[in-house]
Amino acid sequence: MRALIQRVSEGSVSIAGREVARIGPGLVILVCAMRGDDEENARLLAEKIHKLRVFADERGRMNRSLADTGGAALVVSQFTLAADTSRGNRPGFSAAAPPEEGRRLYEHFSARLRHLGCPVQTGVFGADMAVRLTNDGPITIWMER
Predict the structure, then answer these.
(1) Which of 6, 55, 69, 80 is catalytic?
(2) Catalytic residue among 79, 109, 121, 122
(3) Neighbours of 6 (CB within 10 A)
(4) Is residue 140 annotated as a catalytic residue, yes or no?
(5) For the residues of 100-128, what is the DSSP string, one character each?
(6) What are 58-78's pLDDT values in tens digits?
(7) Is the pLDDT of residue 145 over 90?
(8) Percent of the chain's residues with pLDDT above 90
(9) Which CATH number fits domain 2-144: 1.25.40.20, 3.50.80.10, 3.90.930.12, 1.10.860.10?
(10) Is 93 a catalytic residue?
(11) Residue 79 bears catalytic tag
């Protein structure tokens, strides 16, 4: 699985002008299931992100995680993270998991974060979403499991 993680002071998802999810301080996590991924990939990625130390401690150093801060996660499905731009000018997405598998692993990833005690909001899988966020730092990290 692939994820693009952004530390935020706030984030939200809207569909057709209607807000469907909102978080305060935490992480916006754009996530993509790749062909060949399974529940273990989703579990490992969720656990790694939950413990990722990207929040400031009392000295201003990045030493705290979602687990430490109680911050929230806004998880958004993003199949375009599978883009292959090696040929031509039009990206290919054949490396992404098929939609049914992608949905299942996206839901498994989100459920695992919840199980770890993280407050989780989600977008709507496969929907045309407007994602708004205020990147804090800015801190943006690419991860793959």
Answers:
(1) 80
(2) 79
(3) 22
(4) no
(5) HHHHHHHHHHHHHHHHTT--EEE--TTS-
(6) 999 999 999 999 999 999 999
(7) no
(8) 99
(9) 3.50.80.10
(10) no
(11) yes
